[in-house]
């Protein structure tokens, strides 16, 4: 009798283990199906979809979501300078200053005539204490677009560097 009780308990434990593993497999299958569904939906989206979603998330100050959207957009089109500029803006908000500078550098590499890239890189350079680099970028933005608002920022940087005479001349 004791032997059959041991066998019954062993079978019961085996059935419980099988049931738990089946539930675990079902959960994993559901997670995989959800992932696959999201992935296939994303594959239907194009660069502009991710780019626009990134702009929207940035506007709503959802910076982590904006970063993810711009990352997707850039994966789809590595030649779009504005995507790098806006991703740089997001990284600046997240205080990833080197990442922001890298994105602005890439935007400039793609389009060296884009004053916004120089202006925004100048802003970040100023934040990290590279005032002369910031001035150089502001000057380049002004060269590319003489009406660009960077002129005002350039004057403020002169004050930061102690060059008040230069500020007064401007």
Question: Can you tag this structure with a few keywords?
Answer:
170 residues, mainly alpha
- What helical percentage do the residues reach? over 70%
β-strand percent reads under 5%
Roughly how many Å is the radius of gyration? 28 Å
Query: Largest beta sheet, briefly?
Result: none
Q: What coarse outline follows from CA principal-axis ratios?
A: elongated
Q: Write down the secondary-structure element order.
A: HHHHHHHHH
Poorly predicted residue ranges: none
Class by SSE composition: mainly alpha
Multimerization status: single chain
| Strand tally | 0
Question: Summed up, what is this model?
Answer:
By secondary structure, this protein is mostly helical.
Written overview of the protein:
With 170 residues, the chain is mostly helical. The protein has helices at residues 2-44, 47-59, 63-76, 81-93, 97-110, 115-127, 131-144, 150-160, 164-169. Helix 4 runs antiparallel to helix 5, helix 5 packs antiparallel against helix 6 (115-127) and helix 7 runs antiparallel to helix 8 (150-160). The longest helix has 43 residues, at 2-44. The chain is elongated, with a radius of gyration of 28 Å. The model has no long low-confidence stretch (mean pLDDT 80).
Secondary structure elements and pairings:
Elements: H1 2-44, H2 47-59, H3 63-76, H4 81-93, H5 97-110, H6 115-127, H7 131-144, H8 150-160, H9 164-169
Helix pairs in contact: 2-3, 2-4, 3-4, 4-5, 4-6, 5-6, 6-7, 7-8
